[in-house]
Each structure stands twice: as structure tokens, then as C-alpha cells.
Amino acid sequence: MVANHLDRRTMLAALVAFAAASDSAFAEDFIDLEWTDLVPEGQPAIPPVIQGLIQHDGPSLSSQQPPSQGVRTDWNGQIVRLPGFIVPVDYSGTGVTAFILVPFVGACVHVPPPPANQLVFVTTAVPYESSGLFEPVNVIGMFGTASTSTQLADIAYALSADRIVPF
To answer: Where is the signal peptide (predicted)?
Structure first.
């Protein structure tokens, strides 16, 4: 009986050690992406153009979204890390559960959205307590191409977030 209990403790300790090693390996096991990586090779990355103030009572910003020049499928199904800014789409309590990850502050809200291949629709099971639109974050999770259309913009990529952390 004592030997059986000792074996269980040894097995439990081994499992805990394995889980800890797996978590630390996972913490470093992702591909770092930049926004330019999402644009197909040979296509120009369109930088944000801000010309004066936006008339919010004018045409919708989504109608001013430039066309996308295609997508890259290189990272479909891969765990990636991508920095950006949050444009909230859905909440649970006070946390954001779905948002558009954008490459620069104000995209989709104060200036016309960038092309679809410069936007990522992010979902998370654990609501993220965002401090606002101007907070840069790193999002780590499963990445892929997925055409999504919202009132704010057309989006070419999706990311199922495992972790969202301040940049």
C-alpha cells in the first residue's frame, strides 16, 4: 500500500514536471510575424495614410477600405505571435472576447481600414481586459486565412488567441 502511494506521488511529480516543461516549451514555441509578412510577396504593403481629420458624419470608413491584394497561407494552422492594436467587436462582462487586430492606432475607427490582408479577426475564450484602443498588445495563438466581414471592415485572417499580453 505504501509502495503504491509512493508510485502515485512519483507519477504525479513526473506529470507536473512534464506539464511545466511543456508549458515553458509552448511559451517559446511560436512564429513571430510582422504585418508585412501578411502581404503576398511582390505586393506593396500599404502604409497608413492620415490626411487631416475624418468627418464621422460622412461616408462610412469601411466604404473607404482599399482592396486587398491577396493573402498568404504560409502560417495556416501555426501558432504565431503578432503585435497590434485592439478594435473591440464583442464583449463578455468587461472583457473583450472578439476584436479586430490592426497594425496602427485608429485603424477602422478614426481612419479608413487598411486592406483586408492587414487585418486579423481575433477570438478568445478568456475575455481580455483591454485598457483601450491605444494599448499595443501581442496576440499568440492559432493563425489562418478566414474571410470575415464586419460593419467596420473586411478581414482576411483569423487568430484564435491562447494569450493576449501588453506589448
So the answer is: 1-27
